[in-house]
Amino acid sequence: WNIHPVYCSNVVIRNVTVLAPHDSPNTDGIDPDSSLNVCIEDSFIATGDDLVAVKSGWDEYGIAYGRPSNGITIRRLTGSSPFSGIAIGSEASGGVLNVFAENITLFNMGVGIHVKTNIGRGGIIKNITVRDVHMHTVRKGIKIAGDVGDHPDDKFDPKALPVVSITVKNVRGLKVLQPGLLQGLKDLPF
């Protein structure tokens, strides 16, 4: 990952350009992880993985540490990637709360807005607001999926916490192959 503030508070990432080849793996642009009050603004990201992915630890390790990402603001971001523009998770076992993203421009994307979790990830994902998004040439506009990611071992807690209060509004797209996909857990649908 290119910029990875982990266990941080009061971070401002402004006027940043992050570039990586579209075929390069694990080259997320900016990944706030178990951090409080992070502002990402006025930036351009073109990578081979997620542009911005909000995280908070992996499986029992994230649950044990118990520090959510909270108060994340993403605004005036432009970018391109074969993966996600704005992603929540999938490593979100400590929880992700109060994410606000606005004025986002995405082009040549895999998924515009992606909430990624899986059974056993363990963290609540709550109060996510994304608005005023323009997408051009995107495979999936919005994807909320409960089957993303694997586990480091077999000691994960199979009781997944809910995804609550997701608001997406004023999203426009051209050449979007699939506008949206909601994919719950097999035995525990959203």
From TrEMBL:
Q: Keyword annotations for this protein?
A: Glycosidase, Hydrolase, Lyase
Q: Which GO terms describe its biological process?
A: carbohydrate metabolic process
InterPro entries the record matches: GH28_Enzymes, Glyco_hydro_28, PbH1, Pectin_lyas_fold, Pectin_lyase_fold/virulence
Asked whether the UniProt record includes Lyase among its keywords, one would answer yes
Q: Which GO terms describe its molecular function?
A: lyase activity; polygalacturonase activity
Signal sequence span per UniProt?
none
Q: Which domain of life is it from?
A: Eukaryota
Q: Which Gene3D superfamilies match?
A: Single-stranded right-handed beta-helix, Pectin lyase-like
Protein family according to the UniProt entry: Belongs to the glycosyl hydrolase 28 family.
Q: What is this protein called?
A: Pectin lyase-like superfamily protein
